[in-house]
Amino acid sequence: MITLFHHCGSHSLLPMKSDRSGETADHRDARAAIAKHDAFIRKCVDGFARKYRGLACEHDIDDIRQEIYIKILEGALRSYRGESPVEGFLFRMIRNACYDHLRRIRSHREKTEQYDEGAEVGPSRAGFERELEEREALDFVRAEAKKLPAKQALIFTMIALDGMKQEDVARALNLRQSTVSEHYAKAKKLMRSAAKKRYPDMEFA
Amino acid sequence: MDEKRLQKILDAPPCRDDMAESVMAFAEGLVDSESERERIMAHMAECDSCRYLFEDYHVCEEALAETAAEDRRPMPSVAFALASGAVRPSLSPYLDAGARAHVLGEAGAGVVDYRLPIADRDLPLRVVATERGARLEIRSADESARYYLIGNRGYTVACVYDGVAVFERLGPGEYLLSENLKGFAGISITD
To answer: Domain of A42: which CATH number?
Structure first.
């Protein structure tokens, strides 16, 4: 065991959590993992920063990176199961750290806004009813989507509910855009007929 | 970025079936079995958390491809050997001029100075050979700076006192040095 001394008063190299001696795989060794994936981590955090332009400043990005490195040093990679490449696992870690940070920023911003605006204003009755209707419609769409074949259901959900473009869905699923378009049209047709049965008096676009 | 979408992502409950790693394998095209692919797609259609993960992966993939095309510096690294109370550094662009002369002209020196480019600044690193291994001294005017030294089996942190942060009794091995975890430099010590 290597022993180090430093001026902070701790006199040994802090072992990573659940240190399993003898394991040499890169993903179990924080030093090797950082040396190998530092550029990937930086690029991913920058990618998220670009995606959420205006929501995170340079300090936030530094904080997020630090949080990720600390997690690695504390042994986060030990829960990696090896189903996907280690970059995939790191990507999830980075993504979670980014969203946790954004959650904190938004919560802080909301508190400040509430404080600035004074008394809280509740939703109007009309707004509340519209929200209920929307939720009911969403539940219906989700329930019907479950009855579709898996690929069709996923394509429909990504486009209709998540607002993704057909070309992005095609790229993500490694399919031709025409195939995505076909699946989406079929799914939409089935959804429309299900909706007509459920709400016979309504018009559907 | 659509604020509504961000809110949906932030509000999505975590996956109840612990499928995130399978979703990542699917995203990377590593799932060969058709039935497994169907299972993951069916799951993603229902599980908001996993579907957003999958969608984000592709958004970031573009960002990664863009940034990969940009010029980036490799991680700076230095190497030296410790032998009978002396440091024998390998020739490195980060060696101070005096130390470079040692490499070219002498067997070794008691002290070697480097300037390591970490996080947009040159970190002055001094390596001192002692009877009990190497001592690393980092000069810094920032008393709040924290220095991390990461080894194969753990890490340690040093704070700045009187303008210097110190790591002592370093044996042979591979290390990473970082200031506030913003950028890293490799340090390789051999016998």
So the answer is: 1.10.1740
Whether the CB of B190 is below 8 Å from some CB of chain A: the reply is: no
Tokens of B135: 């001592």
Can you give the length of chain A in residues? 205
In this structure, are A102 and A161 located in the same domain? no
A153 domain residue, yes or no: yes
> Is B181 within 8 Å of A70 when comparing Cβ atoms?
yes
Which residue range forms the structural domain that includes residue A78? 26-115
If you write DSSP's letter for every residue of B150-186 in order, what string do you get? EETTEEEEEE-BTTEEEEEEE-SEEEEEEETTSSEEE
Query: Which alpha helices (H) appear in chain A, and where do they start and end?
Result: 30-51, 58-73, 86-117, 125-145, 150-156, 166-173, 177-198
Q: Using a CB-CB distance cutoff of 8 angstroms, which residues of chain A are in contact with residue B171?
A: 2
pTM for the complete prediction?
A: 0.76
Q: What is the largest CA-CA distance in chain A?
A: 78
With a CB cutoff of 8 Å and minimum separation 6, the contacts of A19 are A75, B153, B154
- B81-111: pLDDT as tens digits: 988 788 888 877 777 766 655 555 555 678 8
Partners of residue A8 in chain B, C-beta under 8 Å: 157-159
Domain B77-190 sits in CATH at 2.60.40
Residues 6 or more apart whose CB falls under 8 angstroms from that of A101 comprise: A56, A60, A63, A64, A67
Q: Which two tokens stand for residue A112?
A: 């400040």
